[in-house]
Amino acid sequence: MDTARAPQRLKATAGAVELLRRVGGTHGALMMHQSGGCCDGSAPMCYPDGEFIVGDRDVLLGVLDLRLGVGEIPSTRPEGADAVPVWISGSQFEAWKHTQLVLDVVPGRGSGFSLETPEGLRFLSRARAFTPEENSSLAAEEVIVGQRWEQGWRPAPSPEPQVVAEAVEACPVPARREVP
Q1: Phi, psi (5° rounding) for residue 14?
Q2: 81-96, pLDDT tens digit by residue?
Q3: Distance between first and last Cα of the chain
Q4: Which of 57, 105, 143, 146 is 20 to 30 A distant from 91 in Cα terms?
Q5: DSSP notation for the chain
Q6: Pairing between β-strand 163-164 and β-strand 44-48 as defined by DSSP bridges
Q7: In a domain, 168, yes or no
Q8: Which distant-in-sequence residues (6+ apart) come within 8 Å of 23 by Cβ?
Q9: pLDDT in tens, 99-120
Q10: Is 166 part of any domain?
């Protein structure tokens, strides 16, 4: 990664991208919102694009490009059903801005409000803490909030891969220590 460029705030596993493609084939263009609690705890929720009202202060974590496979880098900005914007509330962003969200999928029942519920799978957020250097580069970054999105602001395609095969590639699990 180029140290002068801020890291992506969002990555996704191949399984999550495949599930989004499948759900999108049924429901059309999609959007996601990282829930901040209530009925379903804190869970990534999938909706038909435009069915969830994004608040003026909600923060865009990124736009998933469903055209991409593992390790591929986009050459153009995704559009239509290939573009899945992923949002988080402004207050939740403040608590999690020091982490990269990794959208994953696991077996289980999704929430009653999220489109993947009938699939026998559910979306899951994982996170990796940014390094001090990454946090410094992100501090200068201007985020896109709902109000700017409505005004037409869109992020540029990332120069680094967005899709990883497994979550552990984006958020490694520390090795187990031997207990004496």
Answers
A1: -60, -40
A2: 999 999 999 989 999 9
A3: 38
A4: 105
A5: --TTSPPPSEEEEHHHHHHHHHHHHHH-SEEEEE--SGGG-S-EEEEETTSS---TT-EEEEEEETT--TT---SS---GGGEEEEEE-HHHHHHHTTEEEEEEEEES---TTSTTGGGTEEEEEEEEEPPHHHHHHHHTPPPPBHHHHHTT--PPPPSS--EESSHHHHSPPPPPPPP-
A6: unpaired
A7: no
A8: 30, 46, 115, 116, 119
A9: 999 999 998 876 667 877 777 8
A10: no
Whether 42 is in a domain gets the answer yes
5: which strand partners? none
With a CB cutoff of 8 Å and minimum separation 6, the contacts of 77 are 63, 83, 154, 155, 156, 157
Q: Is 128 exposed, middle or buried (0-12, 13-18, 19+ CB in 10 A)?
A: middle
Determine the Cα–Cα distance for residues 84 and 76; give it in Å rounded to an integer: 14
User: Does residue 172 surpass a pLDDT of 90?
Assistant: no
> Which domain range does residue 59 map to?
10-159
Residue 176 lies in a domain: no
User: Is the pTM value of this prediction over 0.85?
Assistant: yes
Q: What is the edge-to-edge ordering of all strands in the sheet holding 121-129? A: 121-129, 99-107, 10-13, 163-164
Number of structural domains in the chain: 1
